[in-house]
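Hi R.,

Here's the chain you asked about this morning:
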Amino acid sequence: MDAFAILQLLVIAYCLYIALRRAWAGWRTLRLYRSAPAEPPRDVSTSPLQPPPLVATLTAMGFRRLGEASTYFHAIGKEVLCWILVDSTETVQAEVVAAPAASALLTAFADESIVETGFPEGGHLETPAFRSRTITGSAGQAYEYQLWQAAAWSAAHGAVQKATTLADYLHWDEVYRARYLRIKYRWSMIWNGVLPQVLLLFHLASIAYTLLVLPWKGLTLATAAPHITVLFFLSGAGSLLTTVRWQIYLWGRRRNAAGEMARGGR
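And the predicted structure, written out as tokens:
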């Protein structure tokens, strides 16, 4: 076997390693998608926690502290801390996480429908009872957008519900987890959970063809160089598809909805 074929085999092995790592991460995503609605947050407001800078930004905009909540996701062995605030009207709840720095602004309605605005990342989807958008510019722009979409939503969904205590937030968090969490992260589950498993199967099928089918045809590694080249390109294509998948997912997380206000709609 020539040196070029050996180099190709090394690249194939590396692509398989990457596929295995991403498939494992995808499996964790699938487990999280399944279990997260049953993982309630707990009140940790009495713990000495250092708030991220985004909390100060929201406070300067008129938000006040309701408390802090912690959720432990058993599927991935990770705890997530949230700083919970509410605006001066007590109709816009803010969840702030520290790493990466991000916030979600939520408004709930009488029929238990919810609209939210993520900053600087979030979602972009709408159902009859749930709407999620993302603003990438600033926290102030995100708040302005949240007020705008909440006002538009209230005409069909009833009065805005106030949150005056952390108990109110925990109630609406329960509603959110039960009714909307899986809806919001369905595409994330597909892109980051299912597709990595499919791409791993693609890699394994390609390797199985080389190791099992080619010897059955009487080929050896020394005489199978053209087929190894084909496998090399297949593995490279699988890795490229994985990268493209991730970039499409990030684009969806950062799709800016700021222009919708100017257009008066979606």
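The longest strand covers residues 64-73.

Let me know if you need anything else.
M.
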